[in-house]
Design goal:
Rossmann fold, globular, 9 helices, 11 strands, alpha/beta, 3-stranded antiparallel sheet
Length: 238
Amino acid sequence: MKALFGLCLLMLISPLTEVQAQSDSQNSPYEFKNGDPSGIGKWYKGREISHVMGYQGMAWLERSDREQEEETSQLLKNMNLQPTDAVADIGAGSGYHVFKIAPKVSEGVVYAVDIQPEMLEAMKEKNEKAKQDHIQFIKGSEQKANLPENSVDKILMVDVYHEFAYPVEMLASMKTALKADGKIYLIEYRAEDPTVPIKRLHKMSEAQAVKEFRANGFQLIENIDNLPWQHCMVFGVE
């Protein structure tokens, strides 16, 4: 439990510069104003975007009690992974989910996407032992996942979407990468539940997620309500 509260200490302090804010505010879907110390001062659809968790928090991602706290094995069951699936983990971090997914899609591919070189390097080092040759490591950017077009059956985002500085652009990038019947699995701590021990900006409500995804051409297929603290929201292209 203490580890969860410790998450707030691991945020990268990277506020927007005045020049960035002025540039982005022109013809932009985003608002810029003061807000929570955990946020970047940039808002989308009434939600303040949070700071990104830096690679310094890697140990928290790999904590021994994560399965107990989050039931990650149940999450993978929710995804109904097939051997030939192409799966992208966006914001893959240290690869906690990547290396659990890879054996389940042995005839497919796993795209491990992260914006931080240190995270990508950590995953590559782990794969020297795991030897999963169907994992592709991709450096994303703030605005693009850099996935091949029309290539992905399932996209997984675990507690990362709320950190995207450019959610509109990222959702457009994912929409391009998904196959016609592709799905996004959005995992976020439930903002509706005050007992979930996570800071406010690192939670999302179903209503807020639906508002943002619908504005970008996605519809909620279902919200699988079987994880202890997190939503498992499944979105498809409208």
